Automatic annotation (TrEMBL):
InterPro entries: STAS_dom, STAS_dom_sf. This is Anti-anti-sigma factor. PROSITE patterns: STAS. It comes from the Bacteria. Residues 14-62 form the STAS domain.
Amino acid sequence: MNTPLTLTPGTRPDGTARLTVAGEIDLSNSADFARAVEATEGRLLVDLTAVDYLDSAALAVLFTHADRLELVVRPLLMPLLTISGLTDLTTVHTTTPDSAHP
């Protein structure tokens, strides 16, 4: 059973746009994810700490916007982001859902 996707836009204390994502990102909802990322201009912190699964459609969105993204992820997603090469293109912080975010 898929976990529904929740997208919550916001702003960090320093004024940088933030998108908090929860659930699973896959082909069925990657267009919603892309629209949320594209709704902001400039730097965007994408908090993926509540994401348990993402597929190649989600990776495609992240790669398309890698030059302006900063990601926060749980260690669970790091192997995928590293193997895909995304960690070479953007800043990725690892954390747990309960810890403070950058």
